[in-house]
Amino acid sequence: HAILFKTCSKLKANHLQAKLFCSHAARVSVLTLSYAAAQPEPVEISLSRWGSRNLWRWYSQIMPAPEKGLDGTASAVEGNRTYITQELNGTHFCVGLHAVINGSFSAECPTVHEAKLTAAAVGEHQMTVYYNVSLGATCEEAKDACDAALNAAIGSGEDALYAGHRDAWAEFWNRSYAAVEDDYQENL
Questions:
Q1: What is residue 118's predicted lDDT score, i.e. its pLDDT?
Q2: Long-range contacts made by residues 11-20, C-beta under 8 angstroms, separation at least 24?
Q3: H or E element, residue 184
Q4: What is the pLDDT of residues 77-117, one digit of tens each?
Q5: Which residue pairs from 12-17 have beta carbons closer than 8 angstroms and sit at least 24 positions apart in sequence?
Q6: What is the pLDDT of residues 114-135, one digit of tens each?
Q7: 101: nearest Cα among 154, 152, 26
């Protein structure tokens, strides 16, 4: 799966700040992005699913069938949420992305493999993106599980999720701490 963020022009940013972390407890990844440009420009957030073999050689020389493994893929957009669902060997999964964007945006599914949101062209963008992958007995059940995880994460808020993420890593490293008398050896 790929999540792609891109600006629609090649203008340089005056300011770009991003923070990405995963919340194990909430089962989501969270990206916050603050972006300022000299000229207003749109930002596109694209969620896509393509074959697991992403090397051009595979598709052009070994097995020229890029559709192999992609049957049953579906993309959807509901408000500011995008989804990709698929069944693979009896496993159903849903990848969901929820974007909290300042200002207006448009949403579309250009193919069954891609769903995207495009934020309006403004000089400054601030957004928080929540991302989840869920499994289910059906694609609809996986989508419902994805929605539940995203709704819970959004309800908690990015700050609370980050505090939990930070505390979980602090607990992990505190349990893993080892001290050696010789500073040189400890650094090795």
A1: 86
A2: 11/37, 11/38, 11/39, 11/41, 12/37, 12/38, 13/37, 14/38, 19/162
A3: helix 183-187
A4: 998 899 999 888 888 999 999 999 877 888 888 888 888 88
A5: 12/37, 12/38, 13/37, 14/38
A6: 888 888 888 888 889 999 999 9
A7: 154
Is-contact 35 16, C-beta < 8 A?
yes
Angle at 150 between CA 145 and CA 151, to 5 degrees: 95
Dihedral class, residue 152 (left if φ above 0, else alpha if ψ from -120 to 50, else beta):
alpha
Q: Are 64 and 109 in contact (CB under 8 A)?
A: no
What's the chain's length in residues? 188
Q: What is the pLDDT of residues 5-59, one digit of tens each?
A: 554 445 455 777 889 999 999 999 999 988 887 788 788 888 888 765 555 566 5
Please, are residues 135 and 145 in contact by the beta-carbon 8 Å criterion?
A: yes
Alpha-helix residue ranges (DSSP H) falling in 11-157? 56-57, 139-156
* pLDDT given for residue 11 in this prediction: 47
- Residues 57-74: what's their mean pLDDT? 66
State how far the Cα of 44 lies from the Cα of 115, in Å rounded to an integer. 11
CA distance 171 to 175: 6
Q: And the tokens for 161?
A: 């999720």
